[in-house]
User: Fold these one by one.
Assistant:
Number 1:
Amino acid sequence: MAETAEAVRPAQEEPPLRIINPQQADGTKWAQLRTTLSRHQGDKLLLILTGYPDPDNIASGLAHQFLASEFEIETTLLCFHEVSHQENRALVKRLEINLVLYDETFDLEPYDLYAFVDTQKTDTPISDRLEGKTFVSFVDHHKRLGDVAAEFVDIREDVGSTCAIYAEYLRTQYPHGLNPGETDQVRLATALMHGIRSDTMALLEATRLEFEAAAYLWPCVDQSLLKKIADQSLAPVVMDMIQKALENKQVFDSLLLTDVGFVRSEHRDGIPQVAEFLLRRDGTDTVLVFGIVDGKTVDGSLRTRSDTISPDMFLKKAFGADEYKKSYYGGGNIKNKGGFQIPLGFLAQTADRDALYAMACGVIHERFIEAIGRKE
Ligand SMILES: [Mn+2]
């Protein structure tokens, strides 16, 4: 009479619920960060955003702030450049994110700790003033440049965004999800989702970690707000830059090199937007766009979908390093994007702007041609 349990199951029984079992987060790294943060209970933390604030670094900073608050650590998000890209402005404004723009009056004294997110570089305009403070953490997804002297380091070159790493910490700390009833948590989830989308071409280049993060964050994301923030309209000034870039373009097989002239710093974020736009040109897989920002710095962006070009290696090889500061002019991730900034220094004082521009163009062209292995 040995009937199996299956066979005796009543026919009218409802089919079993399909249990969606999300991949459990690997909690190892969060356990380490947790231990680190708990050692600094009650301290004040300066979270430094190097370079231009973008969705991935802003949202990672917010997540860090949120996680650190569990340990009564008060965090200030400090940046050195104004948020210029209209999409990033919308993010900061609509989510009411408090980013502090550094100036000389900023008092560093109350801070015991500092940390970095989503950056390769740890040199900042205040590096010498951070001495004596504890470098508590460094979390990033760009190519590792060398040893990082932080108490906690998490560098994952194979993931698409720093936000996904922070979402893993959140998944470990709050396995039942964030709370959609809490405005702060909705803001955090929405910002993280935007950061993830922004660094992965709206998930086209996402890794498993981004999808797991998205599944975790989704119940708490304000999607209508996300749509508004991600609105891809182009500022008129960016359109003008595209026009200039098209006029100046030089095409070498699948590579495109161009420049957009003099750019004011508040429009600097137009440069990567131009590069992204030109990458859509059929037959082109790599684009380098540069301009002179505020008359002082040659600033460029590289975008690629080539299988053979690593933006990080390419930019370091092409433009080399500043021998005094001992840091590379450019860098990026291994997959699809990078940027560079080369100060014009003393020569920027010339009244002959055309000559200055021609000189900068000449050098960039030369180095680019050399890096792609062509000699004109
Ligand atoms: Mn990033």
Number 2:
Amino acid sequence: MIKLLIDFIQFLYGVAPLLLSLAALVLLSVLLSKSIKKHAVVYYTVMAIPFALVAIPFIGRLFGVEMFNFNRIWFLGGIMRDYIHAGTLGFPLLIIIMYMGALNPKNSTVKKLLGIRKELSIMSGFPILTHSLIRVTNNFPDAIRFFTDNGEYMASTKITNTFGAGITNFSFVLGVVMLALFIPLWVTSFDFVHKRMGNIKWKKLQRWSYVLYAMLFIHSAGLQAGFMLNPRERESPKPAVEVTATADTVRNSNNREKRGLPKQAATGERNAKNAPAVNGSRTEAAKPTAQNEHRQSRGFADIQVGTKAKRYIHTASLFLIFGSYLYLRLRKKKLKKLK
Ligand code: HEM
């Protein structure tokens, strides 16, 4: 039963990481709300550690000082990559902060979360700043080149869809605008800055967070659209859903992807190289053999969802999250006006 639950959670994390991270972080924030309020500095420190582990060697390398790359350490590397990616920690935290303003503050769960909104904002800053530091350095120069020297850009990349590349690079440039907006919003979340500023000025500035949320949606949906139009190399066409040989092979394959390597075909797929893949069913060559029969399981871990299908699910989640936020926010405003 526990294995089935773990398999199911792993499956959900593979298919809809944003929704799962969001659910997990809401639960953790509610359960730990008192502790977060009381020991905020401890939480900030914990969140700042990966930031330091990524930022210090990264900045060092930019200045020619070769430092140890913590990303290479097993398990810690995975956590750091998720942290840089922003999708599993920074993004869900921003969504929680954003949503709080649209929900009924009298609700006891919302009350708990509203009590730690400032703390969650500060915590979200560390992964977002890490993400920005890496992406600005790695992606921004090329994004500018796309707009300033398009011919040279297109000639030096394997990209085939110019419109897709335009959306992607626009989203990168927007990321920098977001960063310029995020930094003052984040810095003024700290009590000592807030007090120095005064409440009126602070509230005025915080209104810009709505602009940030809108840009956040465009940035993430734009990147998904761009990647769909120009699939990255490791995103080779695959059947949307496919049951592969064993749970082990799927896990190995997912671990390879997390390490930034191309996904390795599962044993069954490799055996069935020339056999047609059948959606939702085992391929001939992936049928149980004497050697692997004891490893056969037909649990959730056996279901492999293709990258394209995952992108559609992710994009649908973005529309669901931001669409429902917009609806709730407008409804709240309308109700306030009526009172
Ligand atoms: C405040 C600033 C930023 C925020 C809040 C932010 C947020 C995000 C989020 C939430 C995602 C995940 C989207 C998804 O999974 O649908 C993402 C992805 C991405 N962002 Fe940003 N971003 C920021 C700045 C930047 C900047 C400045 C760049 C580069 C110029 C950038 C480049 C990327 C890239 C390449 C991805 C896709 C790969 C990945 O997930 O790391 N971002 N960003």
